[in-house]
Structure formats: structure tokens, C-alpha cells
Write a structure and sequence with these properties.
3-stranded antiparallel sheet; 24% strand; rod-shaped
Length: 100
């Protein structure tokens, strides 16, 4: 281990001597300017969404779609479809994108 210390000390002395003489590689190279990186981030497009009431069957297929202010009509439709021993239908909120 003492041998490594001596080698390091000898190398350090050589480097300091070269630095004093101006023979270092760093002094010869011109400084590079840092170029700013271009952003690769995707622009987030705003998607407007509208809320509806959907009537669904037991296999989660949408049977009917009503405006949000027509919840009573949607529930009535679900009851009509569920009567007579048929598969039960239910009402659930549905969000759909609006295209402008």
C-alpha cells in the first residue's frame, strides 16, 4: 500500500510541474459551449368531456344514452327494460369527448 502512495505522490509532483510549465492538456483545448437540449415532451392536447347517463344491460353493453339532466328518464328506461324477468339493466354515468 505504501508503494501506491509513493506512486501517487510522484504522479502528483509530475502533474504540478507540468501545470507550472503550462503543458497541461486542459490549457490547450478551447472551452466548449453547452448547447441546450431540445425538449422531446409531447404537447398535451386538452380534451373536453361531457357527462351523460347511460343505460346498460347485464353484459355491460350500453343500450341507451341520455343527457345529464334526464336522469329520471334514464332510470325509467332501465326499469322498462328490466321488467318481465329479463336481465337487469342499470344506469351509470358516461363521459364522452366533445369534438369542436
Amino acid at each position: 500500500m505504501a508503494r501506491k502512495v509513493l506512486n501517487r505522490m510522484a504522479l502528483r509532483e509530475e502533474a504540478e510541474a507540468a501545470e507550472k510549465a503550462g503543458l497541461t492538456d486542459e490549457a490547450k483545448k478551447p472551452a466548449k459551449k453547452a448547447t441546450p437540449r431540445k425538449s422531446r415532451k409531447k404537447e398535451v392536447a386538452e380534451v373536453r368531456v361531457k357527462l351523460f347517463w347511460g343505460v346498460f344491460n347485464q353484459s355491460l353493453k350500453r343500450v341507451a344514452l341520455f343527457e345529464f339532466n334526464q336522469k329520471k328518464q334514464a332510470e325509467k328506461k332501465a326499469e322498462e327494460l328490466s321488467q318481465g324477468g329479463k336481465s337487469p339493466h342499470f344506469v351509470q354515468k358516461v363521459k364522452e369527448a366533445i369534438e369542436e
